[in-house]
Amino acid sequence: MAVLNEEQQMLRDGALDWVTDRAPVSAFRRTRDAGEVFDTGLWEEIARMGWAGIVVPEDHGGSDFGVTGMGLVLEEMGKQLVASPLFISGLVAATALKEMGSEAQKAEWLPKIADGSAVLTLAVDEGTRHDTAKTAMTAEASGDGYTLSGTKVQVIEGMAADAMLVLARTSGTAGEAEGLTLFLVPADASGVSRTPLKTFDHRGFAKVAFDNVRGGKDAVLGAVGQAHAPLEKVLDVARVGIACEMLGMCQQAFDTTLAYLKTRSQFDTILAQFQALQHRMAELFMELQLARSVVEHAVREIDAGGEGAAEAAVLAKAFVGDVSNKMTRQMIQLHGGIGMTDQYDAGFYIKRSRVLETTFGNSAQACERWARMHDY
Amino acid sequence: MNIQDSQLSAFRAEAREWLERNFPKSLAGRGDAYFDISPRYPEGEDWAAWRKAMGDKGWGTPTWPAEYGGGGLTRQEAAILRDEMEKIGAFTPMIGIAQSMFGPTLLEYGTEAQKQRHIPPVCRGEIVWCQGYSEPGAGSDLASLKTKAEDKGDHYLVNGQKIWTSGSMHAQWCFCLVRTSNDHKHEGISFLLIDMATPGVEVRPITLISGKQTFAEVFFTDVKVPKENLVGGLREGWTIAKRLMQFEREGIGARKMTVGELRPLDVVAKEYVGTDEQGRLDDPDLRARIVRHQMWERAHRLTVERVAEEAKTGPSEATSVLKNAGSIALQTRGELLMEIMGHRGIGWEGEDYTQTERDSARQMLQNKAHSIYGGTYEIQANIISKRILGMRDHQ
């Protein structure tokens, strides 16, 4: 665990206490059983504690604790699989607005993100794999604005969102990084239709169709046709946020499994006494430690904002994605039959891990990017 | 700026100025030249001058007490010194098991007289020490060692055999685990310092699969060792031995390769394997494995840094994984390098292979020792699962 300053320590302890007390994994189970994707009461509590404004600058109503601060909260929430729009609205949309938005857009939306009165999301994916350059959705210039047409999938908290940051093509063809523009579209705009996607982690995803949706010039974030590079930076922040959540999940999956091995007995022997299992746990512990180093490095690099940020984000997404899948797979295996049942929590962890791995580029895609970054 | 900050920046200026005056510029960036598995100091005037300067100043062992010849620096000052050395390609000439393992242990457990006698030469880099731990019948189960030391009144009489004794061909002294009692396995072990020049000590080098001779067997036949050379109490040897092994693992975990092909694997692979029109490696499977390896290597290095950072506030449980994670990094690199070099990666001797290619092939083999010495990969897994994770022994 990184050496934290006093404010970070308080934030981490506060998140740990709240999650343990108010939102343990049993709370997620109740939400799922009720057919909901998140508990609005808990989301209000999260907002009241100011966590939705952690990366929002102080003059827009946030606390400006950076991705290091947000990462600590996401990690604690990851441990207990807390479902909420915190990641997509409080981290990803807030970062996109900060990095790409105009002063007017920031002034309008950042305070609402920070106090939780609005949920914003990012609508970028279209095909079976995350790849922003392959965006086919069009935004045609017409009159004093644009007309958006196309369909987005895998939009995180798309049903709950009040507004969406939508990636569309103002020029060029699918496959080109040039010609992409980011638009801010209110969810209730005419021509927007949303349907929930029922993913196996039971979280909130939506498919969103845009049928000749009108947007003014003031709906554009950043430069027309130039969204690819700045959006990649925003997505790197998102990838690091995902790595933080996955790290929390890994830690919890490991701790839960270790506790189980110390209680379950077969052949009149506690499972923890079998060397085959001791060595497997030692190996998982090693990978967990490496994953933690990688995540702590990534949040630091992102907050420092230097050259190393993109590489650190790629490393975190790929490395922790791999460890998280392995850890949750082993969680099932080492629990045996009970791990296969819906009444036990292990299944929640493997499902969530798989969803997070595919979100904003899977491990293999991150590895591909690493190779290109190093010019091979 | 508070008082502490201003003291530190004054120290930085002092360190920079001293290095400027004393570090021979011809040695810049050559720190890896003399340390493989057994430390041997390169010949030459500049090397000798640099060792003497650092030895006199005590900065080769910067945090050790000045009264025994150390630098007497705080951890922060030592970090600044390291930083300033890195900037100009300087390095400490005092690397070896004496500095990384033996010295720190003796400072904790030695008598005043032992410290006065043995620590200053270590600080000056004058004495090479070797580690008399493993025996033919005591490898992973080290505590089953049999080399015995009998009490003969004014001295101990040592008989037995050690093996895998790194660098013992060049060592002047050996810190040795000996059995002083057969009543108890662990409590019957004592920690003895033996002068390698004593009659009855014989060293026979062992040739390894790499063709190198970095280890040797050491035979003790009626070797007389003065009683003052016992460290700690009789039967306290095992406690001291374990403490020393902690220092050993920390050192091993952070070790990196120093001979053979040292460039990043992707650079080497582009040269040997070739690329397509987009500059991608021609072998996509190899390419993917190089990526995963580089990520592992980076994760390991970040963990080494994290452990150092956390150590300032207390012990870090991540320390326990460094050796195994380091073995994987080192050995995977060696294997990949061989695969990358293809027909040229399996050369042993002769001018058909470059020196770098031959060294890389031998190094791939030599590196297999990394997961054996200092506690095998499996022993490390035992330590993690039992001591850190609290998984008990099979009853």
From TrEMBL, chain A:
Cofactor dependence: FAD
InterPro entries per the UniProt record, alphabetical: Acyl-CoA_Oxase/DH_mid-dom, Acyl-CoA_Oxase/DH_mid-dom_sf, AcylCo_DH-like_C, AcylCo_DH/oxidase_C, AcylCoA_DH/ox_N, AcylCoA_DH/ox_N_sf, AcylCoA_DH/oxidase_NM_dom_sf
Domain Acyl-CoA dehydrogenase/oxidase C-terminal: 233-372
Top-level taxon: Bacteria
GO MF annotations in UniProt: acyl-CoA dehydrogenase activity; flavin adenine dinucleotide binding
SUPFAM superfamilies in the cross-refs: Acyl-CoA dehydrogenase C-terminal domain-like (SSF47203), Acyl-CoA dehydrogenase NM domain-like (SSF56645)
Alphabetically ordered keywords of this record: FAD, Flavoprotein, Oxidoreductase
Acyl-CoA dehydrogenase/oxidase N-terminal domain span: 5-116
PANTHER family: ACYL-COA DEHYDROGENASE, ACYL-COA DEHYDROGENASE FADE28
Protein name, as recorded: Acyl-CoA dehydrogenase
Taxonomic source organism: Pseudooceanicola nanhaiensis
TrEMBL record, chain B:
Keywords associated with the record: FAD, Flavoprotein, Oxidoreductase
Requisite cofactors: FAD
MF annotations from Gene Ontology: flavin adenine dinucleotide binding; oxidoreductase activity, acting on the CH-CH group of donors
Gene3D superfamilies membership: Acyl-CoA dehydrogenase/oxidase, N-terminal domain (1.10.540.10), Butyryl-CoA Dehydrogenase, subunit A, domain 2 (2.40.110.10), Butyryl-CoA Dehydrogenase, subunit A, domain 3 (1.20.140.10)
Keyword Oxidoreductase tagged: yes
SUPFAM superfamilies: Acyl-CoA dehydrogenase C-terminal domain-like, Acyl-CoA dehydrogenase NM domain-like
Entry's family note: Belongs to the acyl-CoA dehydrogenase family.
Protein name, as recorded: Acyl-CoA dehydrogenase
